[in-house]
């Protein structure tokens, strides 16, 4: 088979051959845009020998490109029907090597993955691992938090997601997209947006456009220390409870004493009419330090 899986003709042929119906509840939108697929591989900076976890390989369009670029791929998928399709449609040999040495499929919900156990014997866990995925959009943020909280050392996460979420992840302070999600993620990882992909590049076509984002864990020394992340994220959420109101207003429930509140705001070096979206990560860390931990 010379035509790549991710070309529209080949994807349509696979869909017809297996009488497939894309499962909406599993976020199945298959990417049929070779430029976008190659853009993802490039954004992930795939090198021969890279160890890649793929989430939701679908019918294998991205998997195939990752393998051709020289990656070893461990994929998590939940749709049982795709098992047979992937084994039939992926090339039997890639770059002269048999597929089973380069590709392993695990039928499991990514949010239940136990990486150390699942990957043992296939990946060298002492070496860095990349994650590359055209995500199932209904669980984009749970997946990001799950990966971030896992014990694996990731060199980068290259994730295609709905454009709106990508904009929130990469937002700068002072913009409308900046909010609790931005802050929770940017506290842990650097975020860089790559290509935008039109909804017409998928079968079936989703309602929204997509973007590819590369997340890189920040080195320990450049991370702002957050003593209690759960408390921190809760305080940030409360500060944004009413986005259009001032920080002072939003802080009322957390710090009922107005003198304390105004003293804290002034210690941040900002005007008392400041709005939550104007504050930096560092200033939120300072606020969280001054709010009692919820019991
Ligand atoms: N990688 C393919 C592509 O680019 O065309 C398919 C991407 S499609 C947007 C998302 C894939 O994730 C589907 O194949 C779906 O079955 C799978 N999926 C959905 N929920 C999942 C979960 N919890 N864990 C692993 N895979 C999941």
List the helices and strands and how they pair.
Layout: H1 8-17, E1 30-31, H2 34-43, E2 51-55, H3 61-68, E3 72-77, H4 81-89, E4 93-94, E5 97-98, H5 99-102, E6 103-107, H6 115-119, E7 129-134, H7 140-149, E8 154-162, H8 163-169, H9 180-186, E9 189-197, E10 202-203, E11 210-217, H10 229-239, H11 247-250, H12 258-267, H13 281-290
Parallel strand pairs: 2-3, 2-7, 3-6, 7-8
Antiparallel strand pairs: 1-10, 4-5, 8-11, 9-11
Helix pairs in contact: 2-3, 10-13
Bound molecules: S-adenosylmethionine.
Describe the structure.
The protein has 295 residues and is an alpha/beta fold. 36% of the residues lie in helices and 19% in strands. It has 13 helices and 11 strands. The protein has a 7-stranded mixed β-sheet. A two-stranded antiparallel ribbon has the order 1-10. It has a two-stranded antiparallel ribbon with strand order 4-5. It is elongated and about 70 Å long.
How many angstroms separate the termini?
61 Å
Radius of gyration: 22 Å
Number of helices: 13
**What percentage of amino acids are in beta strands?**
15-25%
Structural class: alpha/beta
Range of helix content: 25-40%
Average pLDDT figure: 96
Shape by Cα distribution = elongated
Instruction: Please state how the strands of the largest beta sheet are arranged side by side.
Output: 6-3-2-7-8-11-9
| Biggest beta sheet attributes | 7 strands, mixed
| Uncertain segments | none
- Overall strand count: 11
Q: Note the run of SSEs as H and E.
A: HEHEHEHEEHEHEHEHHEEEHHHH
The small-molecule ligands in this entry are: S-adenosylmethionine
């Amino acid at each position: 088979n010379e035509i790549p899986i991710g070309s529209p003709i080949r994807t349509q042929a696979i869909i017809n051959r297996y009488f497939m119906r894309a499962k909406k509840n599993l976020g199945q939108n298959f990417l049929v845009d070779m430029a976008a697929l190659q853009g993802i591989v490039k954004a992930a900076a795939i090198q021969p020998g890279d160890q890649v976890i793929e989430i939701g390989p679908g019918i294998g369009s991205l998997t195939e490109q990752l393998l051709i670029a020289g990656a070893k791929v461990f994929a998590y998928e939940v749709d049982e029907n795709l098992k047979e399709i992937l084994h039939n449609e992926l090339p039997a040999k890639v770059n002269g090597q048999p597929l089973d040495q380069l590709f392993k499929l695990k039928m499991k919900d990514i949010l239940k993955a136990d990486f150390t156990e699942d990957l043992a014997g296939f990946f060298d866990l002492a070496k860095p691992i990349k994650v590359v995925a055209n995500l199932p959009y209904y669980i984009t943020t749970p997946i990001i938090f799950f990966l971030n909280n896992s014990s694996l050392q990731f060199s980068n996460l290259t994730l295609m997601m709905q454009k709106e979420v990508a904009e929130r992840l990469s937002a700068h302070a002072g913009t409308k997209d900046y909010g609790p999600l931005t802050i929770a993620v940017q506290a842990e990882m650097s975020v860089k947006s790559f290509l935008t992909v039109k909804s017409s590049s998928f079968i079936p076509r989703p309602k929204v456009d997509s973007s590819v984002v590369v997340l890189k864990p920040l080195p320990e020394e450049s991370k702002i220390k957050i003593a209690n992340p759960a408390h921190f994220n809760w305080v940030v959420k409360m500060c944004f409870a009413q986005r259009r109101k001032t920080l002072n207003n939003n802080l009322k429930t957390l710090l009922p004493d107005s003198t304390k509140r105004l003293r804290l705001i002034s210690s941040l070096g900002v005007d008392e009419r400041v709005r939550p979206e104007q504050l930096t990560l560092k200033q939120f860390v300072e606020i969280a330090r001054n709010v009692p931990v919820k019991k």
